[in-house]
Design goal:
six-stranded mixed β-sheet, five-stranded mixed β-sheet, Purple Acid Phosphatase, chain A, domain 2, globular, alpha/beta, single chain
């Protein structure tokens, strides 16, 4: 574009300069010919410069020892498009940040991205969330299409809305779905031809059909190898135990990726002759597998394993010393120095150079946390924000009203009524995070997100309680969210009737579950709400303390 613009400018200036001068026809003709040919001369020079720059760039890339192929793995997304932020450990992830990370990787390294396991839905979908979750599934498909995901291996929960809905997603937005047929991915990076074989391990494998499935998978492996694949990855959405059984039988597969309830394993797990990857769920981490010399027909060399096993053993020893007073002691400074030394050795380990020098098939692996500090890809962020803004219209259209109370049924009194007799308990509650639950939704504009609202109000979808758009006076996690509806308790002036003094653990885990509060510990969290005035005597000796009884099951 710059050449054309510059040439046109030169042409106009030259023609103006010579228009009124008395040059011979031959001279003018010669000048026009030179001007016409000059762009091609410039273009040829630029082409040679570009070729030289490309050669220099290739040499720089070779010197950097960039892997022949990078595989990025996102496992068990379960419809998680952005961090929910319920606890500190849930501030990781977000498709906008993942998108930016993928884009930057592809600028420097040949990168394949695979999505493994339930990526649309986690579990049973309540009726109140059907519209929201279906629209979110469409958004996820749209974003994955934009990111040019290379393969998706769905889990069984991705079909929760039925086969027809699932197939409609792929009709509207085509994505590379993998179910039974293996795929071959070709890379000719830096003129080094290599093939990566990928096999999907479906969720329907069990002990009854295991041998039949193994026979089919063996045929898939033969097909891949016949077509040039010397490195094979299995993407498994079946159970961990069955995946390990398959790994024992199918030793030609080099790497196994678990998509069914994967743990967050910082280090790759060595099996017998292969390796297993568990990258956790919700896209909070991305597993990165850098492959060196995947074209070689040999076993995979792991240059890190000796160091990582020593590090794990040291960390365990330090943990045991800190936890058990009677554990045989070793100088803690000495242990920490050993750990620091191993960390430095790992940092200095140049796997790419070792693989190149020894001509060995090798890999590097790391689990990369997608933190809130990662840059966001703006167009993806815009789509997520648009989805959040649409939830008010989507959800209110089918939210319905608050379920009416039946005759003589106990309703909700509200914190103002509770505070009349229990001011100290009210004061203790007002200092807790429960009393600020609704404010967090207002701050993040999530007051019409059904998945969030249900745990930030009192009496959600209970008779006389709350419904979407009908939360007035019952915002926050109030007394009755734990102690149950207590209007009649207030009407009769107290006593132990029409309320629950003891709150069982199951009430807490309704919201403090694995999805929203993965580090929840009932005994530890209980200490945060059993405080003076609420379960403990008041510091000022007041008389309105609520005494929390023992768990009846333990009496």
């Amino acid at each position: 574009m710059l050449i054309k613009k510059t040439t046109k400018k030169n042409w106009d200036q030259t023609m103006k300069r010579y228009r009124h001068q008395s040059y011979s026809f031959l001279h003018c003709l010669l000048m026009q010919i030179i001007l016409i040919l000059s762009p091609f001369t410039i273009y040829a020079q630029d082409q040679r410069e570009n070729q030289n720059q490309q050669i220099d760039q290739l040499q720089k890339i070779k010197d950097l020892n960039i892997p022949a192929l990078r595989v990025m793995l996102i496992s068990s997304m379960i419809g998680y498009i952005e961090p929910c932020g319920c606890t500190i450990d849930l501030k990781l992830g977000g498709l906008d940040r993942i998108a930016y990370f993928i884009q930057k990787s592809r600028e420097y390294v040949p990168t394949l991205v695979f999505v493994v396991g339930n990526y649309l839905f986690e579990d049973h979908i309540p009726e109140s969330r059907i519209a929201q979750d279906e629209n979110k599934a469409k958004l996820i498909h749209d974003i994955f299409h934009q990111l040019k995901i290379n393969a998706i291996i769905p889990g069984k929960n991705d079909y929760l809305r039925g086969e027809a809905f699932f197939q409609s997603l792929y009709t509207q937005t085509p994505l590379p779905l993998m179910v039974d047929t293996p795929k071959l991915f070709k890379s000719d990076y830096l003129n080094q031809l290599s093939y990566l074989g990928v096999i999907a391990i479906p969720a329907d494998i069990d002990e009854k059909n295991l041998q039949e499935k193994i026979a089919k998978l063996k045929n898939d492996i033969v097909t891949l190898k016949q077509n040039g694949a010397q490195t094979i990855i299995a993407l498994s959405v079946t159970q961990r135990a069955i995946t390990k059984q398959l790994a024992q039988e199918l030793k030609e597969i080099n790497f196994w990726v678990l998509g069914d309830h994967p743990l967050e394993e910082k280090n790759i797990i060595q099996l017998d002759q292969s390796y297993m990857i568990e990258a956790g769920d919700r896209g909070r981490h991305i597993a990165i597998l850098d492959l060196y010399h995947p074209e070689l027909d040999q076993a995979v060399s792991d240059f890190k394993s000796e160091f990582t096993s020593q590090k794990t053993a040291l960390e365990l020893q330090i943990k045991r010393q800190n936890a058990f007073a009677g554990f045989k002691k070793t100088n803690p400074i000495e242990l920490q120095n050993q750990l620091n030394q191993i960390d430095q050795q790992l940092k200095n380990l140049d796997i790419a150079s070792l693989a190149k020098e020894k001509n060995l098939k090798s890999f590097d692996y790391y689990l990369y946390p997608i933190s809130k500090d990662e840059p966001q890809q703006k167009d993806i962020l815009s789509k997520i924000e648009h989805f959040q803004k649409s939830l008010k219209e989507i959800n209110l259209a089918q939210a319905g009203k608050v379920i009416p109370l039946e005759k003589n049924q106990n309703g909700y009194a509200g914190t103002a009524e509770c505070a009349l007799c229990h001011p100290s308990a009210q004061a203790a509650w007002e200092k807790s995070r429960h009393a600020k639950a609704w404010d967090t939704l207002v701050k993040d504009d999530k007051t019409f997100d059904v998945e969030c609202v249900s745990c930030h109000v009192t009496g959600w979808q209970k008779p006389g309680g709350t419904a979407l758009g009908h939360t007035e006076g019952k915002e926050d996690v109030q007394c009755e969210a734990c102690h149950g509806p207590s209007a009649k308790h207030a009407e009769i002036g107290g006593g132990e009737s029409y309320t629950k003094k003891f709150v069982p653990k199951e009430v807490c885990t309704t919201c403090h579950n694995q999805l929203h509060s993965p580090k929840f510990n009932y005994e530890e969290y209980l200490k945060k709400i059993i405080v003076p005035g609420h379960g403990l005597p008041q510091l000022n000796g007041g008389s309105d303390t609520i005494n929390m009884p023992q768990d009846p099951s333990k009496e």
